[in-house]
Amino acid sequence: MSSIARDSGRVPPVWERLPQIFGYPFKTACLTTLGLAAILYLIGMVVPLLGLILVIAAWVVLYKFAYDVLEATARGWMDPPEIQRKSNSWVLVKTFVLFVVLGFAVTGIAIVTGSLTLVAAAAIFIVLALPAAIITLAMSNSLMSALNPGTWVGIMRSVGFPYFIASLLLFMLSVSQGMAESLVAGLFGPSLAGHVGVFLIGGYFLIASFHLMGYLVYQHHDMLGVEQEVTAADRARAANPDLSPLLQEVEGLVAEGSVDEAIERLQKELRQSGLQPEEHERYRKLLRLQGRTDELLAHSREYISTLLYGLEQPKKAMSIAEEALRVDASFQPEHPKQVRDLARLADQYDHHELVIRLTSPFGKQNPKHPHLPENYFLGAKALFEGRGDEQKALKILRQLQKHFPDHELRERVDELAERAERIATS
């Protein structure tokens, strides 16, 4: 998900989760189940007497797991279930009956009306309603509820447009499955490898499709009245095991939409014992997200000092200063010494604009400060080398020559003034 989506507590829509959906069947629990089902299927293909039973058992294992995936995802689990959930072994029979009844419904309309238009409309409606029927069967384990058109329409209305996007994605998955199965069948023919390959492909797309439907329910669980077993905070902590305990707590608050509370938690820690670099960055990002500019600038002043003299990260200190100046053109560091030190660094790394913006107001704010000559010299140097404004640079240098004739930088001031004058008069 995009960082802004995560920061605002927004659940990414299903179409933004396609990479995770396609990767879901490759997780350990899915591969284990798929492997077990494939072994049963393989044995069923070669054992003459018990073969049919084992083949059916393979499909039961697979469908039972797929329904568990749907129900677990819908309740907030983004990893496959590793223990049995509430679906039972009759789920394949119920699914079969569901498909048969829906098929008979279309056939009945054709027989009674004889209208191709009505038959086509009924078929389209049933195809669109099928995800809602499967979702209902997974969540309620009730075939009667799954066959109730009112339930289908209720889900469609509650979810709205995303439901139809998800239906389109499921249709595309079905088409992709058919193409993949045809490719494998064409490569291996009616051999054992071909049959098992087709089974594995079917299992992969079945799990991915059911995870997609489960995620659709999870995304709209409030409107559908589906109780969550995993909080957003729990998911955030599980997704970031390498973060500090403080950041895990903060990510949990953000995932629940409590961004201001997360900021307060970081502020409290900042006052009490300070923050680690990654915690500083998260704090700043949340302040930006909430538009809390004054607090961001205040933190910039404190953080620049930490970066310069504590963490010794000069480039980061310059970056913070540049960001602060973009937010507020009148920004100045916490202490005059930091202006000189930042200006030196910026001069060293040829950040000429930063030098100019830091040093320009220094004389008005600190007219008698001992760092004033050096700051003005660095500012003149940045004007000359960065902007190519030799006239303005020369004016500042002449003032330095006049008012600070014995300063330790006098030789460098004279040299730069000579260069600037030579270009200005050429």
Automatic annotation (TrEMBL):
InterPro entries: TPR-like_helical_dom_sf (IPR011990)
Gene3D superfamilies per the UniProt record, alphabetical: Tetratricopeptide repeat domain
Transmembrane segments: 21-43, 49-70, 91-112, 118-139, 160-180, 192-218
Keyword field contains Transmembrane helix: yes
SUPFAM superfamilies: TPR-like
Superkingdom of the source species: Bacteria
Record bears the keyword Cell inner membrane: no
Keyword field: Membrane, Transmembrane, Transmembrane helix
Name of the molecule in the record: Tetratricopeptide repeat protein
